[in-house]
Amino acid sequence: MTVPRLVYPAEGATLVGIRPRNDRVRALMRGLAGARGVRFLSHVWIDPRRAPLPAGVLDEAAASAQKPGRGGVGTALKRAVLRGQYNWSHRHLPPDPPLVVACWNGLKGHRRLAMEAARRNGHATLFLEEAPLPGRITADLAGVNAASSLPRLPDFYRRWLAGRPDLDPGAWRGIRDDLAPRQAAKRADVHQRAGGGELAAQPYVFCPLQVP
């Protein structure tokens, strides 16, 4: 489904972008906001004043952080920093005025906590990520990847396809010609290796998985 512009859940809501990764993400957020504009939080600072945080959320954020702490001291320090960043986000996204808080991915580290702070304060959330289909992005109010709002049962998609007889259900297979392995040179703990020569002669299911 293609949505031409963002539908705001509350009258007078503003789009706030959490630490956009690059100019492309900023442009995407500006395009979604349209004439209403977008306010960027380019940094998430640390506030020592504790804000209410649901149990387990800090653990999830710490475990998913791009740069987790090493050793007992490093892990404790990382958790303290993340806790301070949640406190800051909670106070800089107050319940009034109403907001739509957008974030690229938004499931890891301090971004995960910023989106939690937005939810705790009653704001709508918008998660953005590269889509499985070429030339598309995912925009979801609940999350991306495994945390998305997409139904998990195949009957939903069968009913959707049954109502669109003009679509070729096998056309998606052409995408495989453009698939290329993602380079993992930036991560020492991620490796790639060539498949066995006998694999091409065997029936198999290809399951591309996220690193986490």
Features:
about 210 residues, alpha/beta, five-stranded mixed sheet, single chain, globular
Query: How many extended strands?
Result: 5
Quickly count the helices: 5
Instruction: Name the structural class.
Output: alpha/beta
The helical percent reads: 25-40%
Backbone shape? globular
- Poorly predicted tracts of residues: none
Oligomer: single chain
Largest sheet: 5 strands, mixed
Share in β-strands: 5-15%
Average predicted local confidence, pLDDT? 88
**C-alpha-based Rg, rounded:** 20 Å
Helix-strand topology string: EHEHHEHEEH
**Strand sequence of the main sheet, in spatial order?**
2-1-3-4-5
Q: How far is the N terminus from the C terminus? A: 28 Å
Tell me what the structure shows:
By secondary structure, the chain is of the alpha/beta class. It is 29% helix and 12% strand. The protein is built from five helices and five strands. The chain has a five-stranded mixed β-sheet with strand order 2-1-3-4-5, with helices on both faces. Helix 4 (109-120) links the parallel strand 3 (99-104) and strand 4. The radius of gyration is 20 Å and the shape is globular.
